[in-house]
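Help! Submission page says 'invalid entity' but I think these are all valid:
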Amino acid sequence: MSDRRRQTRTEDVMAAIRAQAAARQLAPGERLPSIRRCAAAMRVSPSTVVEAYDRLAAEGLIRARPGSGFYLTGHGLPPLSLARPAVPRAVDPFWVSRQSLDAEADMLKPGCGWLPAGWMPEAALRRGLRALARGSDAVLADYGSTRGSLPLRRLLLGRFGEEGLHLSPEQLLLTNSGTQAVDLICRFLLQPGDTVLVDDPCYFNFRALLRVHRLRLLSVPRTASGPDLAAFEAVVAAERPRLYITNSALHNPTGASLSPQAAYRVLGIAAAHDMTIVEDDIFADFEPEPSPRLAVLDGLERVIRVGSFSKTLSASVRCGYVAARPDWIEGLVDLQIATSFGGPSPLAAGLVADILASGGYRKHMEEIRRRLAQARRAVAPRLEGLGITPWLMPRGGFYLWCRLPEGADPVRLSHLALAEGVVLAPGNVFSVAQTAGDFMRFNVAQMGEPRVYAVLERALRALRQG
Amino acid sequence: MSDRRRQTRTEDVMAAIRAQAAARQLAPGERLPSIRRCAAAMRVSPSTVVEAYDRLAAEGLIRARPGSGFYLTGHGLPPLSLARPAVPRAVDPFWVSRQSLDAEADMLKPGCGWLPAGWMPEAALRRGLRALARGSDAVLADYGSTRGSLPLRRLLLGRFGEEGLHLSPEQLLLTNSGTQAVDLICRFLLQPGDTVLVDDPCYFNFRALLRVHRLRLLSVPRTASGPDLAAFEAVVAAERPRLYITNSALHNPTGASLSPQAAYRVLGIAAAHDMTIVEDDIFADFEPEPSPRLAVLDGLERVIRVGSFSKTLSASVRCGYVAARPDWIEGLVDLQIATSFGGPSPLAAGLVADILASGGYRKHMEEIRRRLAQARRAVAPRLEGLGITPWLMPRGGFYLWCRLPEGADPVRLSHLALAEGVVLAPGNVFSVAQTAGDFMRFNVAQMGEPRVYAVLERALRALRQG
């Protein structure tokens, strides 16, 4: 009998028992028919009944008493509740994350920060999982080493070497995610009350994360070529932040990349005031040609590089990394043990390494860049037609940071759109100084459906009409 | 041509290019032979060369220039360095974790806190990975929902229901690990400087984790039936700890389980002084029959349940959980977004759910319990023969908490054993009050090799002879 057919028969037996329990034909505490009797009654093999009973026991509906058979517990399965309780929430930095992550399948998400699953290298992921299924039992079942998979670290170091950044494997630590990497760095370098500098606007989850650490947040306006340098120098000199957290390339949410002059000046100002920089390089591979990187210029003296594979390969395969001075990595290893007992799953790291090593990754990213360029060209005029104007046209990535028509409040727009099943990302969740009250971040990869524009148009009209 | 054979040919081409680079037959900046020329020279198909070049480019050894071919970067691969720098380290709570996690394959680890990979349900893990490889692209590539996989939560709630603990799916949050669950709870409930109570001895990583949170640690002696109740009541009344973190069942490191009377008294004292309890239930499924659980008695009013699958299914599949009051879970969801951008990999949760639902899990754990009972019976007399005496014989699990022969210092013993490739777990890493200076924790599942006893005997002799 095929696995599939056997599976179906097992499920038939399970369904029959569940139905009997629901109809009170079997009472809580009552013994189920013996394996043999049930097999005869349902015309299946005894081993099918054994599997069905085992699975019902795993679910808690029935319970084995050794030597005596199976009994109905009466607990059944807890009531299925897909929807989260409808707690009204402020539109804070968590709002966009939670709406996007918990969106029902039929919702549209121009506000979310990732590519649709269909854009990811599905065949390579499936092939990688099959390779893991044939892999060693250590990868299947053991904790990994404290720094994470050496093959993946070597591949990453090879890629860094191509940029001119030559590191040893001791300078690289794999983490559960890019976010977790920043979290560990904050734990390592900062005390509650320390001052941290971010861009205005910046990735909204930096705000959420830094708040968890009880830090004092300052921001500096972001221009098309990097932070406003006069403001940057003034705030660093006056407030002496311990840390500056930024995206140099394809900055979230503006899509702007750092100019060589700004990169040089930012490093100089940081050095003059002994400030550490976290460069979150998560959008690195979306650039057609690399823009300047602080980590490369500085050689990881005072810059820490952070990245992950959630935007390029899979958000389900949780794996990020941090590259830094070896003594700092030593400290981060201890922190990762204390707070997660180790790094990412060796399975996740193995899957990423498999795809990076296969060589297909380069082609995948070429294709993604091509599709995104096309999507930017298609989406921008449609938004302009609604009076929504991109602040700049980024050279890569999936974000368009846009000014709304005069008087259209992004938070009210987001509420109206959500009621129609569209998740948006209103400007001020990205702004520590709350200066983005007429901006909105759009993800061009999530805007193929005409319904997005219809909903935006209706919502804008409703706002105009008060 | 089979995948395997094609793979080998690709690797042959890669090896040839690497060898040429190493021998300086190809200089940095130099162009590689064209695909066609290389294919002819090596008698392979052009597509094999394309794949080999792509993979070398992924490693950083060569670089594609669009329209112009491939060039040697000259960066090569960074030098392979498996060994960590030999930094002398104090035997602190991190010592055992790092030695165990980074142990070379030929080392023996009676000090580590997990089962050998060979004890894990390898066939079920492989089958689960193959099922994922056939799964939906959302599970392969998307972030999961904020609380984590609903099928896995339902299975867990079914199991909790069997114990008499009936929860809704909103009361359960999946996490990257049990440790990360405790970390989130500390972030949610505590401020730096707050007082936290642990057992003496307790799991050493609780000490490491609580130190990260800048908390004040107090401990209460653990007896064979739970915390010393007089001492517990006195310290709770006098110091008003916010939190008590404990293992009720098969406590780490002693293997002792809580008595019904101690469970009732502990809850009463906690209620009288408004103290929250984290019950880390990671060894739950190792008990032959369940002992009393604080979470069940209390119904999750002031008790938080934490667990994971690292000890029973796979330490590589990172997935833990926390069950608590729904309003607390809401807060933990935000914290998990801020610090990890979501929970465990949907792939990891899917794999665990697949194995739990299959029903094979119950048989796997029966087999594990049988093997562990056998291992305890075999190991205890061998240790006693060396003058190493178990403090009690646990009813389950893999730990034996043992007193060493008089005058044998566990830290010195650990250093001597490490020099011979054996990782031990000296008593005081488990003790906040440093009262376990003549104890050692042994893992019976990691002590099948006769070499363990030979090394212990030699090291004990060396200590006796000064």
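Support: the input was valid. A stray whitespace character was the problem, and the output above is from the cleaned input. Residues 284 and 322 of chain B are 14 Å apart (CA to CA).
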